[in-house]
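Reopening closed ticket. The problem is back. First fold of the pair:
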Amino acid sequence: MRFFGDTRRTGGGSLPQFLSESSVVLAVGAASNSWHGLMAWGEAGSAISYLDMRPQVNRVTADYRSGLSYGKGFGHPLGAEEFGWFFEVNADGVYVSRYGNDLLLYTQTRIGVTPPPILALGSFQSQIFWNNNIIRDSKSWDWANYVETGPGLKFRWPWMPRSLVFSVNGLRGAYTVPQFYRRPNFLDLRMGFWYAVTR
């Protein structure tokens, strides 16, 4: 199950755009084992919109997704016993039927340092890094083609589950296709957490 939502629903300006899909996706899928950081996956289901504000969009829509995902890290990861430099790269190619059978390509890199735990803060574990991200798509949608860069911080405490990580990122971005209803550059503050349960 995937949930897509936001608090504002639409952006500002004379042609306000919806900020998310505002829907719940129910699907079944399969994923391969990881091979040298590379994994394939696919899923099929239906997206159910929970808003009545979008009459041009069907309330229930077929949703098919598949892709390849690559992730690799070098150096000293978060929570490592030794501190020092690290480098991470994530690359994804994602097919989504709901976007006109579009193919989205993401490349995200982070380079930075993992400092020693701060004992005075309960063995606080952190990473300080710089982001460089490139996002492209096969349809040249104006919202799906941009580059961004900026500082970031990941952190956790050792008493947390191993897969629970909090993050804060400040990014400066630029759209790489013409923008007719918004500025070509943007600033973005992103705060969130990641938690996964696998068996």
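Second fold of the pair, where the issue appears:
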Amino acid sequence: MFDDYRSKGQNAEALQALQQTREDWAKALEYFHHYHDIDPVFEPNYSREAWVHMQLAELAAMQGNTAEVQFHYDQAEAAYNESLHAVVCDVPENDVMREHWERNHRHWSAEMFENLGNTRFVRGHLPEAVKAYRMSLWIDKTNTRVLKNLASVYGRMGRQQDALQIWLQIRSLNPQDPDLQRVFHGNTPPTRPS
């Protein structure tokens, strides 16, 4: 709605739509916090909460509020890290079946590491993004989306040889990939996470 209003020159309506969107995301975040209080070991809640923070960061960036952008990025990264390390699952009262979760319970998923990498990439924390993408690929070696993001990070870091190796790996997995075609036909790779 915001873009539609803005493209029509209806700035007051655009600002109102933007504010309503912010309020809706904030309300969603409030509900996720309540759910977290009820079921702190439900892994998808963390990624959903982090995603909402990323949306709020984008809205804050549209309004030029850099402090709020950084706050939401911090919160998103914290939610991904909390999930990946299963911090709250280590609390004895959450291990009701006495399975010793502190030793073996992790929420390690390729998607969670990918999302953490994307958050770090957007923030410009490139070495940390590489680590997260590498962990994602450790779990799922054939995810071309993560491979493309890793190649983009390497390109931004000036590690062209590493980027090329990743693009060659993508070519072996999916030779018809449109981004791959652009790279090998003289255009540059995507600059934002897929």
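Update: turned out to be a display glitch only; the data is intact. Residues 122 and 192 are 7 Å apart (CA to CA). The mean pLDDT is 84. Please close again.
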